[in-house]
Design goal:
This protein is an alpha/beta fold and 350 residues long. 42% of the residues lie in helices and 12% in strands.
Length: 350
C-alpha cells in the first residue's frame, strides 16, 4: 500500500522521534560526525530531538553555525521525506533503533566510543534475538574442513543453549557458516555491508527470517546500496565485532585491536595472542566468562572509577545472584545452573 505523507494521520510520538533522528542523520545535508555532535548538544537540555529541532531557544544554545541553523530550520517543512521513507521501510519489515532507545544493543555502548556508534541501527527479522549473547567466529585465513566443522558444531551447540552466532555477510568462511546454519536450522544474526532496503534475501534466508531463525542488521542507512568497491566491509566487520558479546577465534592472523572487556575464546590448538589467551572448552565456561564482563569491563568503561579494595577471605559469590546476572544476558543453560547451585559453597541441592 502506498502512503501519502501529506494526507496520512499523525504518527505516534515514537515514530516522530525516530523521524527526527532519521531526518537529521540522512536528510539535513550535514556531515554525520557533526550530526552526532548536534544531537548530543540538543539532548543535553531536551529529552526529545523532535521537540528540540522545533525549539528556537534550544537551537540557539547548541553552538550552531549560520548554515547549520538554516539547515535545521527546514525540519518542520521537509520531515515528510523522512516520514515517507520510514513508512516504506516499515512496510518491508525493517525496524530502526535510535542510539538512545531501549533495544539498541548494550554491547555497542560498551565497546564503541560515542563518536563511532551508529546513530541508527536497522534490523529485519525478530529483534528479540538480540536479547541472546552474540558470539562471532573470526578466521584470519580460510580454515580447513576440520576447523570449519568444529566451528559449526560449537556454534550450533551454543545456539541450543541460548547464544546466537553472529556473522558478517561476505564471501568465504562466513558464507559457508551461513549456509550450514540454514541447513541445520541454527539461528544466527547476519550483519549486512549495505542498507537493508537495498538487499533481497534469497529464499532460504527469507524463510529463516520469517521463522525467527535469522536476523539481519545494518549500521548503514536502509537505502544505502552495496559499495562495489567493497569499502563498506571493514567498517561492517568492526561494527559486528563491537556488537558481539564474545569472540571465537578460529584461525590466525587475529585482529590487532582486541578489547580487554570483550571475552575471547580460542579454538583449541591455535596460538594464543595478546587479548585472547583462553581456549574454548564448553558451553558452561563460555557463559560463566560472559557473566564476568560487567566487572571485568568496569575499569575500561569508567576509567575514573576507583579500583575495588582487596578483601581477604571474601566469601564466594551467591549462586542465585550469579545466575541472575547471567539471565540478564539471555538464556542460561540448565546444566550451568546445576553446576553453580551444586558447588561446595552452595546450600542448594543440585
Amino acid at each position: 500500500m502506498t502512503i501519502n505523507p501529506a494526507t496520512s494521520p499523525s504518527l505516534p510520538e515514537p515514530d516522530d522521534e525516530i523521524i527526527a533522528w532519521l531526518w537529521l542523520a540522512y536528510h539535513s545535508d550535514l556531515p554525520l560526525r557533526r550530526v552526532k555532535e548536534i544531537i548530543a548538544a540538543l539532548l543535553t537540555d531536551a529529552i526529545s530531538l523532535h521537540a528540540a529541532l522545533q525549539d528556537p531557544a534550544l537551537l540557539a544554545k547548541a553552538g550552531l553555525s549560520d548554515v547549520e541553523r538554516q539547515n535545521l530550520a527546514r525540519y518542520a517543512a521537509t520531515a515528510a521525506q523522512a516520514r515517507s521513507a520510514l513508512r516504506q521501510w516499515q512496510g518491508m519489515g525493517i525496524m530502526l533503533w535510535r542510539q538512545n532507545q531501549p533495544g539498541y544493543p548494550d554491547t555497542l555502548h560498551r565497546h564503541l566510543p560515542t563518536g563511532r556508534r551508529p546513530l541508527l541501527l536497522s534490523t529485519l527479522g525478530q529483534p528479540g534475538l538480540l536479547d541472546m549473547p552474540l558470539i562471532m567466529p573470526i578466521a584470519g585465513e580460510p580454515p580447513e574442513d576440520e576447523a570449519t566443522a568444529w566451528t559449526v558444531a560449537v556454534l550450533h551447540e551454543l545456539s541450543t543453549e541460548g547464544a546466537l552466532p553472529l556473522l558478517v555477510a561476505e564471501s568465504g568462511f562466513p558464507a559457508t557458516l551461513a549456509r550450514r546454519f540454514l541447513q541445520t536450522d541454527t539461528p544466527f544474526a547476519l550483519v549486512m555491508p549495505q542498507g537493508l532496503a537495498t538487499y533481497t534475501p534469497p529464499p532460504g534466508l527469507r524463510s529463516a527470517i520469517e521463522q525467527s531463525r535469522a536476523l539481519l542488521l545494518s549500521p548503514f542507512a536502509p537505502g544505502q546500496e552495496l559499495d562495489n568497491s567493497r569499502s563498506t566491509l571493514p567498517p561492517t566487520r568492526g561494527f559486528a565485532r563491537a556488537l558481539a558479546h564474545g569472540l571465537l577465534m578460529i584461525m590466525p592472523p587475529y585482529p590487532t585491536d582486541l578489547l580487554p572487556e570483550q571475552p575471547c575464546f580460542l579454538r583449541p590448538g591455535i596460538p594464543k595472542t595478546v587479548g585472547c589467551q583462553h581456549e574454548y572448552s564448553d558451553v558452561e565456561d563460555l557463559f560463566l566468562r560472559l557473566s564476568e564482563v560487567p566487572l571485568a569491563a568496569a575499569p575500561y568503561i569508567t576509567p575514573s572509577a576507583a579500583p575495588a579494595s582487596p578483601t581477604p577471605n571474601e566469601p564466594p559469590p551467591d549462586p542465585e545472584a550469579l545466575i541472575a546476572r547471567l539471565e540478564r544476558l539471555g538464556h542460561v543453560p540448565d546444566m550451568l545452573k546445576k553446576r553453580l547451585r551444586g558447588g561446595p559453597s552452595s546450600d542448594h541441592a543440585p
